[in-house]
């Protein structure tokens, strides 16, 4: 007979979102178990955010040096780049993250967890044993997402790389095909092309980064092509096959592309397969729809929460951590009988930024940083908007940042409320300017008030003044 252990909060998944829930709940004095089938730290730490940026930063620095007279263009030591990446992933040893989880007071349970009914979780361990847990307060699903393979003939048999293989490769492939022109595909193409691979990027749509402002995709496209990448827009993959060490990709334009490796960056699915969702009235593999307090809306009783990529909210690490903080605060408040006002706008227990101020950075060269609505999304929402753009290189700060600086700042203005509802920055070193735009959007700061936010000279932040002037202030 399996003994069931009672615990206040059970978290399924020890990625960034799950870790944040567990830490915050434990610090509030509740008992918490966090269940993980793979490595503590999750996808972001080992196969996504951290290793991909470790690959991208050196090639970005080298390119930036080439735009600065007197600095020169240092030779790129690819072995050193890969070694530094491996240091950031701790060589796939998660002991430091496991130790950190333990230091919070949370219990790390290693094994594959699944729901087993109302407030119940079963964990299957590698040795064949099972642990049964019962949550007295809440269960939180934070199982992330997994890459999908599109329905293309032969794709299951060619040894396709996903983000996991593409960020952990021990060597630079001579050539590769990247399928998908979203953020992941563009970042991987940038990194590996500049590290010495010959990259062909195949994008079904007519532009790269299709959910962002068109100017972003256009500038990233130009950069990739300048680097020597072969970018095929408006092109679909019909079939793929491997002949020994070579992958052959048949495209719908009648051509065939050959490469050493084939990378799929064409979407992800929620990590909810095999999670026991059927035991709580849901279907295996479902996207978990949640309300602003992170409760799963289709499950009654107010006990099942979900955060991160497995939900119907923004699928970005920082947004998952934001959801996690709200989730933990909701659970703690309800444990104390504090239920009033948890879902009020801008409470710490709500995720209202999901609708108005999602932030995203694409670490290509140029970098792309955005917050809030694009022009198209704003118009689709029925907002009366004006759009203003300004060349960042025309500011003194931009000109000093790099010779021939090429960058563009765009704001989307609600003309009735006279507030910025979206901003996109494209260019070298723009990522750290994003938070200023985020504060503008979240704070709904009027243009007249922003006029008195004086940018320092000579910095690239001067572009905020130039945008206001261009708008007519």
Automatic annotation (TrEMBL):
Ranges in coiled-coil conformation: none
Pfam families registered for this protein in UniProt: Pyr_redox_2, Pyr_redox_dim
Source organism per UniProt: Actinomycetospora aeridis
Cofactor list: FAD
The protein's name: NAD(P)/FAD-dependent oxidoreductase
One Gene Ontology molecular-function label: oxidoreductase activity
Keywords attached to this entry: FAD, Flavoprotein, NAD, Oxidoreductase
Family named by the database record: Belongs to the class-I pyridine nucleotide-disulfide oxidoreductase family.
EC top class, as a word: oxidoreductase
Domain FAD/NAD(P)-binding: 8-323
Taxonomy, superkingdom: Bacteria
E.C. numbers: 1.-.-.-
InterPro entries from the UniProt entry: Class-I_Pyr_Nuc-Dis_Oxidored, FAD/NAD-bd_sf, FAD/NAD-binding_dom, FAD/NAD-linked_Rdtase_dimer_sf, Pyr_nuc-diS_OxRdtase, Pyr_nucl-diS_OxRdtase_dimer
Domain spans labelled Pyridine nucleotide-disulphide oxidoreductase dimerisation: 359-464
